[in-house]
Amino acid sequence: MTTKYDKYYPLVKELYRELHQVPELCFALDKTVDIVKRELTSYGIEFTEKYCKGSIVAEVGKGKKCIALRADMDALPIEEKSGLSFSSKRSGVMHACGHDSHTAILLGVAKYLKDIEDSLNIRVRLIFQPSEEGIESGARKMTKAKVLDGVDHIIATHCEPDLPSNEIGVCSGDCMASCVTINLEFLGKSSHATIPEHGIDAIAMANQAYCELKEAVNEESKGRKYIWCVGRFSGGTVHNIICDRCELFITFRFYDKKFAMEMENRAKGICQKVAEKFGGEVKLEWIYGTDAVINDGEIAKTIKEVAKNTGIVVHDIDAKMTSEDFGEFLNCTKGCLFRFGIYDKEAATGNALHTCNFKIHEPAMKSALTTFCEYIMNANSK
């Protein structure tokens, strides 16, 4: 696949390697932001940092219609073991989810758009977002600060290890799930195992709640997609003491928020009844994360068409139960997130996201660069 955008690939590759070596977390993206600002300045593009700490927003073009393109910039607290010559220079921090490639691609798009700005009759808003991986969503902070005011719609991309390099995947409708984090704590009373009547067994409470909650979420789902995973079940200290405190850490993923709210009410009732039955107490934290990514069907269709027209292989892909805070943007306007494949057998790329040996096939960035640019050119022609 060769396109007119290929001449921007060397720039994208160089920026990707530079960004990969300086991974940063959440909103503390000083070096990353400096690179983005340096590049935009060199292209002659003005920008603002007003939407939240660690963010950069710029605009290219003119006209009433405005399309936003988004790239996330933060990394993960993982020690890199990829063996790359340009591996992370920061101990314990790594770009293990490909956000460095997303940022480099959007900078390549920015350079192209600035080069042809005189022919643009639409505006393109370039959103460089912090803290997609963080507990506090950067997308949520930026949308609260009105970053999408005046935007008609928004598109984004994410690297995909399950797709071959230089191919893309698009799904219409459900794309990535919403997530709830649940912290559940049962409080009992310790006693010696030989006199259980003097104690209140927190593990017994947690065990009953575990079983009842699992059954309840299955009933409430009514066939809807969900994940209910108890990632931690922890309590007790020694063999012969009745446990007085037991914790459950749960992740709950779904697409239907009404289902989640119904389950929240039912979970509170179940846990309270269990605690009362045993004479103990319960504390339940039900923390809503970002909302589901639900792609607009027409935008998804257009992305597939423009990509195919350049010779890119396009796949219709299934929804995932992983989460992404791009859904925060989609609460404000319609949009679509597409995926670009990074798997290449010879290059030994395509390891799972969020792992210490994750790496992308660098030429794969061409497909995302081309898709973004062709999408804008298609919109500009209408």
Strand content: 25-35%
Counting DSSP H or I runs of 4 or more residues, the number of helices is 9
The CATH topology of the largest domain corresponds to Aminopeptidase
Q: How is the biggest beta sheet arranged? A: 8 strands, mixed
Structural class by helix and strand composition? alpha/beta
- Please tally the β strands and state the result: 14
List the secondary-structure elements in sequence, H or E: HHEEEHEHEEEEHEEHEEHEHEH
Shape: elongated
Corresponding CATH superfamily of the largest domain: Zn peptidases
Radius of gyration, in angstroms, nearest whole number: 24 Å
- Roughly what is the average pLDDT, rounded to an integer? 97
Number of domains: 2
How far the N terminus sits from the C terminus, by CA atoms, comes to 26 Å
Description of the structure:
The chain has an 8-stranded mixed β-sheet with strand order 1-2-4-3-5-14-6-13, sandwiched between helices. It has helices at residues 9-20, 30-43, 99-115, 138-144, 202-221, 257-278, 297-309, 326-330, 365-380, and strands at 47-48, 56-61, 66-72, 123-129, 153-164, 167-170, 173-176, 178-187, 226-235, 245-254, 281-288, 293-295, 313-316, 334-343. With 382 residues, the protein is an alpha/beta fold. A hairpin with a 7-residue loop joins strand 1 (47-48) and strand 2. The model has no long low-confidence stretch (mean pLDDT 97). 33% of the residues lie in helices and 25% in strands. The chain folds into 2 domains: 6-174 and 292-380, Aminopeptidase, CATH 3.40.630.10; 178-288, Alpha-Beta Plaits (2-Layer Sandwich), CATH 3.30.70.
